Amino acid sequence: MSKRFTKQSINWAQLQKLVPPDEKGKFLAFKAKADSYLRRVNANPPELPKIDWKKYQTLVPVAGMVEKFQKEYEAYKVPYPDDKVSATIDEQWKSLEPQIKAYCDEREHDIKEATKELDAMKKLPKFGEMTMESLYDLYPEQALDPVKRPTFWPHDEESELGYVRKQKVTK
């Protein structure tokens, strides 16, 4: 007997959005294979065709053979394994939901912070219009201040007075 599928269990449109561009070919091949399998399953009738046992009793000369086959055929049940994994997966999913929610909340917070920084950058004057004085007014710690913090050529951290080499942390 073929199982009847009442609705699609896979949301192909949503899944296709998540597939990277270089994997589209493999995804489409997989979808075609899954669709062909679904068509083959749905092409079969939902129930097996009924066997005309009386016809076979008239055709088979051995007495009792058809009755024996009929009893065995009707007694045979296809053993479908019990689904023991879905319950564990559902439990794991429920235990992960708070972590997922916390992660999403953290990312939302990061997005808000990044949006604030982006808005602050958009309010800055354009790079071509900025002068050294306006840079010093906006960012006094990063701007060049030859009076209070003189630097020496090549103006990198290692060439400055009072530079201390960072120690490597070994475990």
TrEMBL record:
Keyword Ion transport carried by entry:
yes
Q: Which family does it belong to?
A: Belongs to the ATPase d subunit family.
Which GO biological process categories is it annotated with? Answer: proton motive force-driven ATP synthesis
A Pfam family annotated for this UniProt entry: Mt_ATP-synt_D
What is known about what this protein does?
Answer: Mitochondrial membrane ATP synthase (F(1)F(0) ATP synthase or Complex V) produces ATP from ADP in the presence of a proton gradient across the membrane which is generated by electron transport complexes of the respiratory chain. F-type ATPases consist of two structural domains, F(1) - containing the extramembraneous catalytic core, and F(0) - containing the membrane proton channel, linked together by a central stalk and a peripheral stalk. During catalysis, ATP synthesis in the catalytic domain of F(1) is coupled via a rotary mechanism of the central stalk subunits to proton translocation.
The answer on whether this UniProt entry bears the keyword Transport reads yes
Protein keywords:
CF(0), Hydrogen ion transport, Ion transport, Membrane, Mitochondrion, Mitochondrion inner membrane, Transport
Q: Which GO terms describe its molecular function?
A: proton transmembrane transporter activity
Protein name per UniProt = ATP synthase subunit d, mitochondrial
- Identify the domain of life: Eukaryota
